[in-house]
Amino acid sequence: MKLITVSDEEELSRIAADILFTKVKSAKRLVLGLATGKTPQGMYRYLSKYSKECKQTFQHIHTVNLDEYVGSTTYHAYMEEHLFRHIDIPRDQIHIPDGEAASLIEECSKYEQMIKELGGIDLQVLGIGENGHIGFNEPGTSFDARTHVVQLTDSTLKANAKYFVDSEQPKQAITMGIGTILESKEILLLAIGERKANAVKELFKGSLSEDIPATALINHPNVTVLADKGARKLLD
Ligand code: F6R
Question: Which segments constitute the Glucosamine/galactosamine-6-phosphate isomerase domain (predicted)?
């Protein structure tokens, strides 16, 4: 696992966007796995800016998002606001779990099938939860899990309550499984702030444990972690 330390959120966002944009420019076709949340917002801002300034097309890009709340389109709206409305990606090449599907179980297997048909994920961007979750794979999730419906923990609900000031916060989500994430050819994990320091420490100093989902990445051959000083604080 490679660690790149940056001084602050701004630098992290720029470097993450540089990594993605270089791939977008050079690949003939690319399947990007994307995350939502606070952490990648700056990365999407830079990516949108680069794409505009360089008149870079995204016609050859397919995206696959990690997760969505059940009964909600929160992350669909997030992706639209932060990235999709700023680039020319064909709409049918955007994939986000449908949290409003009549059958959630069926939606999960359709999502897995879709990723397979795309030929897998070339580069998956991840954030990390304070409890070490990746996607919405909460502590205790099997490392073999495929896309599934999860019951969110109190810690995750609390961390994300800010997105639901005007509406009731769903307590369930659909998430790509850890097994699905691990099949990505390359992974870029972003961590900002001291609240993530313990999870980042477990990633580099801990050992494989389903109690800390992110430790599943320890054995992946191509993971880069971009962390600011706060997030890597417990590694020194
Ligand atoms: C979001 C996701 C989550 C977040 C994590 C960190 O799609 O999969 O795992 O990456 O909860 O969230 P922030 O960035 O808001 O601290």
Answer: 8-218
Domain assignment of residue 29, given as a range: 2-227
Query: Residue 115: inside a domain, yes or no?
Result: yes
pTM, 2 dp: 0.97
- Phi and psi (nearest 5°) for 7? -80, -35
Report CA(28)–ligand 1 centroid distance (Å): 29
Tell me, yes or no, if 67 is annotated catalytic: yes
Complex ipTM:
0.99
Residue 76 appears among annotated catalytic residues: no
> Quick one: what percent of the chain has pLDDT higher than 90?
94
Rounded mean pLDDT of the chain?
A: 97
What is the side-by-side order of every strand in the sheet holding 172-175?
67-69, 172-175, 148-151
Catalytic residue among 9, 65, 67, 160: 67
* Ligand 1 atom nearest residue 40's Cα: 14
